[in-house]
Amino acid sequence: MLRKSDERRLENIWGAISLATVDKMEQAFATETKLGPSAVAAISQIEYEPGLSIERLRRMIALSHSATVRLIDQLVGLGLIRREVSAGPDQRARSLYLTDKGEALQEAAKEARRRVVEAALARLSSQERQDLVTIVEKMFPALVAGGDDQDVVCRFCDGLACPIERCPVPQHHLP
């Protein structure tokens, strides 16, 4: 059992490594794509769910509707995504898709993220990595609330590396 001072130190270290990981990923995204984290998250989600509506994307990347529309306008202008009339009953609604250029940028962003995480994991043995998987999967439910939070947490996820049936975010397992 850890002493209270060691518990506080663990909390501090965990918070610092979490923040350092996010900071390094955002720096890598900016270097690799010249885009901010919201743009990279939008492209990531559109790759994972082609035909995504602006409203659903807004909830996934935790922006207001107007900020999401401005972001979409920017990404369309850069030739990274395209809007199409939704197949649904509302002809005003738009579905979002990546262009070839957007797909290439998304691959570059995933590789940048992968390099950051690989650098952090490089010092761990194979057994330590497996232990970490078990620990992180156990911790995840305490950090993710229901509803939109599950999508916000997974906004940069690689759906091929972590398919929905193995996702540690518990709400993703609901039918």
Question: If you had to describe this structure to a student in words, what would you say it looks like?
Answer:
With 175 residues, this protein is mostly helical. The chain has one domain (4-173): Winged helix-like DNA-binding domain superfamily/Winged helix DNA-binding domain (Arc Repressor Mutant, subunit A), CATH 1.10.10. 62% of the residues lie in helices and 7% in strands. It has helices spanning 4-33, 37-48, 54-61, 65-77, 100-121, 126-143, 149-153; strands spanning 52-53, 81-85, 94-98. It has a three-stranded antiparallel β-sheet with strand order 1-3-2. Helix 1 packs antiparallel against helix 5 (100-121) and helix 3 crosses helix 4. The model has no long low-confidence stretch (mean pLDDT 88).
Number of helices: 7
CATH architecture: Orthogonal Bundle
Major beta sheet, strand line-up: 1-3-2
Distance between the termini: 39 Å
How would a textbook summarize the main sheet?
3 strands, antiparallel
Q: What would CATH call the homologous superfamily?
A: Winged helix-like DNA-binding domain superfamily/Winged helix DNA-binding domain
Portion in beta strands: 5-15%
Query: In which range does the helix fraction lie?
Result: 55-70%
CATH uppermost class: Mainly Alpha
Shape: elongated
